[in-house]
């Protein structure tokens, strides 16, 4: 395709550095034993970096001149996002928990002076231009909270598409652009993409959803160009419509930068961040230099920073005809032949790929002509001088050196595209956060022409067999097969063993349907319905699966009359779409549209009220 298309010693490779690790096989440290920097912001003077150290549950004050942490503020929840007031006196910190909490840190006093309630997994805080309002993404509530900072009261919760994960204000503060992590809807279609929701900040209502190009998923960050003309959003660009027969030249996953025109509130262009024979896997953080010279993108899978010459890029894009949209808002591929979203050489000569010294770069910030990078899995801060004459790259530890245990090693390998042929993808490319990317893939383990939905890997080691078809007897086999047939690499047993340990150690996140971490009254009634209609006969036990295969009447085509694995219902609220090929966009579709003969539980005669109760229970698991 042309995209112009006891104890054991383990060898680890982290961002090009080989480490000899001695780790006990039977024990592991908790995630909290590592700092895991995830977000970073600089004060206006360029003297202090504020770093959200997620694992350590703390905010570090990092002195830029000494390159050391000078102070820390301990929190009781994991921080994941930062917003600094205009005068630098207040730092707003979002955190991960079902009952979200926003910490207000007085940077002069170096302590938490207030807290504000938020939603499930609050993140990506953004301050209004006048610093009177705070906007917060409640990721798993699928909404954006609007908070009046004078009173600390929530003014509104604005529904958005799915898993809002990043946001940015327009230059005039009139529009809030919200990046949704995953696509929504059924997966057995030809077009699946994440959306950018645009909120009018005067009315606190969503006025438009912009669909990105087909396969644009796994959004992580968003920023505004230096002149306010464009909103920039990195993404994976999944080529899920073709079988996974090969990986070269982006046959499976490419990686993109999407431009939203703020004057027309529409998609301007999408360009590829990869090279012809070298993927730029898993773009995460993005920032534009204040002088307008560079667009900087952190690649979490290849441990790199892309430095893009902005002027040269925009000049080149200005000569490319814009792609028209069909009436349904999807791109009309018949209207344009020169499409930079399919050109692996588009950035040739105008982008420099900088190899970082740390591992798994995530969010970034720019201060005094230097890029600072949160290197999540090496507990370090990376720095890159924006000086084309002398591009200095360094990495500074945030704390004492800590030997990664087996689970941490597995997390490193799971997110590392260096394991893959030509670095096109990592395990986390199709399994972000070890869950699902919400699209169908035509894998080669059961023929060609029968794509299936990506499964979450949560509990995969505890509920064999694995894969939707149950074709792998256990997860350990699937991990090694994935390295061989999806990463197109020879499995190394030490790395595969570490990935097993990481996946087996995953813990479910409490459902947003729970009330104070317990089943609601409606969900408790739904549990009775669950048992009465026969759901519990197959979805049994602590993980809600009997680990058997059945034909439940939902198959057709090449899969007609085939049996499929009974999936766990734990965290099912997070893993839409449903059924083997993702044909059911919602749980109501599972119980009605695709269960007409009651082969998947006797639900056809349920009243609307009982159906709602049943769904409330299932979505609470």
Structure commentary:
The chain is mainly beta and 621 residues long. Among the domains are: 406-504, Cytochrome Bc1 Complex, Chain D, domain 2 (Orthogonal Bundle), CATH 1.10.760.10; 521-618, Cytochrome c-like domain (Cytochrome Bc1 Complex, Chain D, domain 2), CATH 1.10.760. It has 9 helices and 35 strands. The strands form 10 sheets. Strands 19, 20, 21, 22 and 23 form a 5-stranded antiparallel β-sheet that branches. It has a 4-stranded antiparallel β-sheet with strand order 3-4-5-6, with no helix packed on it. A 4-stranded antiparallel β-sheet has the order 7-8-9-10, with no helix packed on it. It starts with 6 loop residues before the first strand and ends with a helix. The model is unreliable at 1-29 (pLDDT under 50).
List keywords for this structure.
9 helices, 12% helix, mainly beta, Cytochrome Bc1 Complex, Chain D, domain 2, 621 residues, 4-stranded antiparallel beta sheet, 5-stranded antiparallel beta sheet, disordered N terminus, 35 strands
The overall pLDDT average reads 92
CATH architecture of the domain at 406-504: Orthogonal Bundle
Parts with pLDDT < 50 across at least 5 consecutive residues: 1-29
Oligomer: single chain
What about the largest sheet? Answer: 5 strands, antiparallel
- Measured between the Cα atoms of the first and last residue, the distance is 42 Å
Number of helices: 9
Task: Give the structural class.
Answer: mainly beta
**Annotated CATH topology of the domain at 406-504:** Cytochrome Bc1 Complex, Chain D, domain 2
